[in-house]
Amino acid sequence: MCALTELLPGSAGLVRDNLENVMRHRGTMSWVGIAGLLWSAGKGFGAVTRAVNRALGAEYNIVRWKARNAEIETAADGSGTGQDS
After folding, report:
1. For the chain, which residues make up each domain, given as ranges?
2. What is the pLDDT along the chain (85 residues), one digit of tens a residue?
3. pTM of the full structure
């Protein structure tokens, strides 16, 4: 923080305020971050699934919300199978 204050005089208060806000809201932000991680990872699994199905010529007839749930479950599960065991 001292190096930042030397480079940008007056920035110590701004940095301190931002750090205090992050520390105050870190629990909520963690859950938002986890939800965003699962959502984006699920989108990645969905894209790979669609690409593989298209490459193999397989038809993927499933209701979109069911497919989305499977993608998020696969991301949360981490196994890559998307199947309940």
Report:
1. 11-77
2. 566 666 666 667 777 787 788 788 777 778 888 888 888 888 888 888 889 888 998 887 778 778 888 888 877 776 555 455 4
3. 0.53
